[in-house]
Structures are given as structure tokens and as C-alpha cells.
Design brief:
Strand content: 35-45%
Radius of gyration: 14 Å
Strand order of the largest sheet: 1-2-9-8
Distance between the termini: 27 Å
Number of helices: 1
Structural class: mainly beta
Number of strands: 9
Largest sheet: 4 strands, antiparallel
Shape: globular
Length: about 120
């Protein structure tokens, strides 16, 4: 049985957008990064130079986990084949043109929400 995920609806460009609960700010502060499944999305949530960001945790090459190891100097390295991604924007550093999908976030009362469609 799947767990019911808390959602909020906010206006984005004149339209309603649904944001799903991802984690608390306290959970993120603990290690500076974490991964969570929300619906069918494997999401890597992290702090990059004081800004909370979220990208797909699935490597563009062969689907390996990008956030398995802690980022080093702002770079995530996929566990399987060492493709590297920038924490700044999810761009692929080893194979330009293969960025990770970025997710829009909202922080409300220390809760971090993600827009799975935006």
C-alpha cells in the first residue's frame, strides 16, 4: 500500500501547481543532501552554496544513482560509471548535453515541497 504524500497547491504563472512534500529543512541540514522517492520520481535534494536544489537522482547514462556518494566540491559522481554532474544546475560535466532533470521547490514552514511537473 502506498503512503499518502502531503501536497500543497500554489499559483504558478496564473495556473495551479501541485507540490509534494519531500523532506523537512532539518532533515536536509543533517547531511546537506538526501534522496527520496516521490510518486515515481527518484529525487536528489541538496544544499548548494546555501540554496536548496533538487534534481533527478537517475544518471542519464545508464540509470545509476547520482547522489549515492556525498558531493565533492559541488560535483556529484554517479556510482556506476563515474559520470559527473554540477550541483549548481545539474549539467553533466563529463558528457555535456546530458543534464539531470531539475525540479522546482517551495519551502513552507520548514517543509520542502517539489513540483513533479514543473
Amino acid at each position: 500500500m502506498s503512503e499518502k504524500v502531503e501536497t500543497i497547491t500554489m499559483q504558478e504563472n496564473g495556473k495551479d501547481a501541485t507540490f509534494h512534500f519531500l523532506a523537512t529543512a532539518g532533515e536536509l541540514r543533517k547531511d546537506g543532501q538526501l534522496t527520496r522517492w516521490v510518486e515515481d520520481h527518484d529525487i536528489l535534494l541538496y544544499d548548494y552554496e546555501g540554496e536548496i536544489k533538487a534534481v533527478s537522482n537517475i544518471c542519464c547514462h545508464f540509470g545509476g544513482p547520482v547522489g549515492y556518494h556525498k558531493a565533492e566540491k559541488g560535483v556529484f559522481t554517479c556510482l556506476w560509471h563515474n559520470w559527473q554532474y554540477s550541483g549548481k544546475d545539474g549539467s553533466c560535466l563529463t558528457h555535456p548535453g546530458f543534464p539531470l532533470r531539475s525540479y522546482e521547490l517551495k519551502v513552507v514552514d520548514e517543509k520542502i515541497y517539489v513540483n513533479l511537473l514543473g
